[in-house]
Amino acid sequence: MSDERLYAVVMAGGSGTRFWPASRRARPKQFLPIAGDRPMVAETCARLAGLVPLERVLVVTSGDLAGEVRAALPELPAANLLVEPVGRNTAPCVALAALEIARRDPEAVQLVLPADHVIEPAEAFRASLRAAAAEARRAGRLVTLGVRPTFPATGYGYIEVGDVLARHGAHEAHDVLRFVEKPDEARAREFLAAGTFLWNAGVFVYTTAAVLAALREHAPDILAPLEAAGRATGLEEVYPALRAAPFDVAVMEPSRARSVLPIDYAWNDVGAWTSLPEVLPLDADGNCVAGGGALVAEGARDNVVFAGPGELVALVDVEGLVVVRAGDAMLVCPKDRAQDVRRVVERLQREAPDKL
Amino acid sequence: MSDERLYAVVMAGGSGTRFWPASRRARPKQFLPIAGDRPMVAETCARLAGLVPLERVLVVTSGDLAGEVRAALPELPAANLLVEPVGRNTAPCVALAALEIARRDPEAVQLVLPADHVIEPAEAFRASLRAAAAEARRAGRLVTLGVRPTFPATGYGYIEVGDVLARHGAHEAHDVLRFVEKPDEARAREFLAAGTFLWNAGVFVYTTAAVLAALREHAPDILAPLEAAGRATGLEEVYPALRAAPFDVAVMEPSRARSVLPIDYAWNDVGAWTSLPEVLPLDADGNCVAGGGALVAEGARDNVVFAGPGELVALVDVEGLVVVRAGDAMLVCPKDRAQDVRRVVERLQREAPDKL
Fold first, then answer.
1. Above 60 in pLDDT, residue A221?
2. Which residues of B touch A296 (CB under 8 A)?
3. DSSP string, A38-53
4. What band does A230 get if pLDDT is binned at 50, 70 and 90?
5. Measured distance CA(A311)–CA(A35) in Å, rounded
6. How far is A184 from chain B (nearest CA, A)?
7. Structural domain span for residue B290
8. Do B296 and A21 touch (CB under 8 A)?
9. What are the chain A neighbours of B307 within 8 Å (beta carbons)?
10. Which residues partner with A298 through β-bridges?
11. Statement to judge: residues A222 and A98 lie in one domain
12. Same domain, A192 and A228
């Protein structure tokens, strides 16, 4: 299959508070240079270089984030920015993009990617996407990538793999036995020991026909209103009423025709500040810095820093802290209490909502 | 004696790195709102309200800080800003101001104050200055204020008091037996136990005649070139060659005619970030914030924060930190290691001098 039939869908509508104060309502994580010099959404598109040019990349986001997409991806054709009137999780997002691609090329294979994950090396990832596209076309299946676990993670969903269905170059396509929600520690250890469970990387690959058929079967309440509305007309009316459901749960889980390709290079969903040491270079004392700023560390160990270009953070004799400087706000917190940042965010929602 | 004969000299030429990154070369501590809403030099002048109006306040600083003085004290008459071509410690500064005041009012009593100390209540301080002025005029002595120690401080110089020489209202003027440099812990404990030692507050009060006589006797190498140079002409030539000596050491110590007035209200030289809890209100968890910024603390205790107006610092579950946000730089450091900040400053002198 020629690459010209590949379209990519980058899901860039997410929001969240785990990267406050660097991420705000108006600029969530995917628009920040969390794990590189460019915003994560730009890194995600750059990772496709040589496989899918921007002309065939659709970026889906919400209306209040459209400006951030344009700023991060100035080369993206205007028609390739799909704006959701409101966020409704990933199933409506996937359906919206699937219908748009169907209009452009009914024979296309669609690669669906989160905007805010780190996956590398990019060349290996592109090879996996090519293999997944081949599997999608071969079997008409919904294909996903599964990351071989390296530790008993409790923060990721898992995929249990079945028999090998086909080989595509160096990749094996397995049947999917089931999707499993985030497990507790004990089950995560069982999964790791069993060797037949993979992390769900949130990447989906399928032909246009396959995804529309699956949506029609498992999520007609989402697909039908979008088909009726067309791309621009009436989206405002139908979208708010759509079921807010993840594509995994609404479509992948109930489907029977699913393949998974195991991959074993670096993947990280960068779910929190504490993920940064996994995706950034560390200095000799285990400190890392994101965002383009400079770190001067004296006797400081294992800290995670975020600061903007031209900004300087000096850490003296501190250990295991998250230190974030962003706009008019900053945060200092121990790494192992980073989840408590939501307490600050909750207080700000009441006391100083302009800081969110 | 009428208050009209009182002149104040505010010494605002100091520099230092202990308040980096809030203080920079171009804006040392006395120009920051470290312990109030206004720059410390403005608070120092405000403390004189009702005793010495700005028309009789001289501010001495170095050429590169003159703009900061004007910004902090827009009402200060231009002729009252004395600019030292280079800093030469306090003896030349005192001599320069003494000569200028001698030209304006040879009968004046001069009150010499550091620009960057906290002393309160202001009313009590003004009463002490009035008493010191009375003592200066009565005896023709060099008068100083001595703070009754409340703990065995090793960071301050001490004054050993002798007999009572006179009473001025509620104040006693004592003879000064000797000045003592910063003691070690054991001697500081002895001083505290003895009850006859006071902290040297760095405040001097004397008649114009007395200080010029003392300078002529003990520091002719400083006074004579300044007298020869006149106020503006030739200062550039003579100043760099002057001996850089503290007034205490060069003049007060060798003098015989010295009085000290004990005071027992709050005085603090705010020598480091760790002094801030002594001069600022604390929240219920012992945190304090200076600089006009906002602090949101969740489970955070005993931290010292500096941030500018409109800025927000969120601290979650951290304890005993100094957290400073200033311009394009920030610092995070345990309070008990605040002296190690100089290591950062030394590195920046080599690597990024624009951040100093």
1. yes
2. 344, 347-348, 351-352
3. S-HHHHHHHTTTTTS-
4. low
5. 17
6. 26
7. 273-355
8. no
9. 330
10. A316
11. yes
12. yes
The three-class DSSP label of residue A75 is coil
- Nearest neighbour of B330 by CB, restricted to A299, A313, A337: A313
ipTM of model over 0.90: no
Q: Which residue spans within B181-290 are E strands per DSSP?
A: 197-207, 258-263, 266-268, 288-290
Grade residue B180 by pLDDT with cuts at 50, 70 and 90: very high
> Which domain-ending residue is among A250, A268, A286?
A268
Q: Do A143 and A171 fall within a single domain?
A: yes
Closest CA to A313 of B315, B332, B356: B332
Of residues A231 and B273, more confidently modeled: B273
Same domain for B203 and B67 = yes
Measure CB to CB from residue B310 to each of A323, A325, A328 and give the nearest one.
A328
The count of structural domains within chain A is: 2
Query: Both A83 and A190 in a single domain?
Result: yes
Q: Which of B216, B241, B268 is the last residue of a domain?
A: B268
Chain B residue closest in CA terms to A341: B316
Can you give the CATH number for the domain in which B171 is found?
3.90.550.10
- Say if residues B323 and B313 touch (Cβ distance below 8 Å): yes
- Interface check B309 vs A, CB under 8 A: no
Has residue A349 got a pLDDT over 50? yes
- Domain identity same for B237 and B286: no
B346 interaction partners in chain A (CB closer than 8 Å): none
- Enter the tokens of residue B157: 């110089």
Diameter of chain B by CA atoms? 62
- Residue B317: which of A294, A298, A333 has the nearest Cβ? A333
* A22 and A142 fall within a common domain: yes
Interface test with A, best of B17, B305, B332 (most A CBs within 10 A): B332
Residues A31 and A147 in one domain: yes
Q: Region B310-328: what's the mean pLDDT?
A: 94
